[in-house]
Amino acid sequence: MKNFTQIIFIFLFVTGHIFAQQEKGIIGADNWLNNWTQFKPNQEDYGEPTQILAGTISEDTKLYKKDVYLLLGNVFVTNEATLTIEPGTVIIGDYKTKGSLTITKGSAIVANGLETDPIVFTSNRSVKRPGDWGGIIILGNAPTNKFGNGSVASYYSQPNSTIYQNSNYGGENPLSNSGILRCVRIEYAGNRINTTDYFSGLLLAGVGNETVLENIMVSYSAGNSFDIWGGNVDLHQAVSYKSSQNDFKFNLGAQSKLLNSLAVRSPYISSSSRSRCLQVISYEKKEEVDFTKKGTSVIAQNLTLLNDSDDVQADIDKGLVNEGVYVGQNASLDMSKSVISGFNPAVLYDENIVINQENLEKIRFTSMYFNNCNGNIFVDNYSNNDDLENWYGNSAFFNVYSKSDNSETFIDLKNQKRPDFRLRINKIIASNDVDRD
Question: Which sequence spans correspond to the domains of the chain?
Answer without folding.
Answer: 21-423
